[in-house]
Amino acid sequence: MELTDEEFAAANARGLAQKASFPLVSAARYDRRVSRVVISFASGIDVAFAPRQVQGLERARPADLAVIEISPSRLGLHFPSLDADVYIPALLDGFFGARSWMAAEIGKRGGASTSEAKVAASKRNGRLGGRPRKPTPEAA
Length: 140
Hints:
This protein is an alpha+beta fold. The chain has a domain of 75 residues: 2-Layer Sandwich (NE0471 N-terminal domain-like), CATH 3.30.2020. Helix content is 34%, strand content 19%. The chain contains four helices and six strands; from the N terminus they run αββββββααα. The protein has a three-stranded antiparallel beta sheet, with no helix packed on it. Strands 4-5-6 form a three-stranded antiparallel beta sheet.
């Protein structure tokens, strides 16, 4: 897709506005002691996150996180050994990956949670023979 000069200029203007309204990354490192990626901003604030919570980094080993490059815009991180990128404004807005990936992650956490009500419902279902079988295509 080829951009027109006007579209290109508009995209540059949006990028400059984003840069002006957001603290820029000054450094990034992986802290093995706490298993967190630590981002330092030009404003003096540090933010840390667990790599397993971010799409593209969820299966990373500490060695994969040893080298972190800061994008030229200073709004992103690149992990060369994983060929993964993290856009910092989206990360701080709570978007740790694509919508489908995030939905699957949230579903995993919800399915793994336990409560007294969930245990009681499971026992009741077990007494009834368990989860009903799905109808076969021939029966439907």
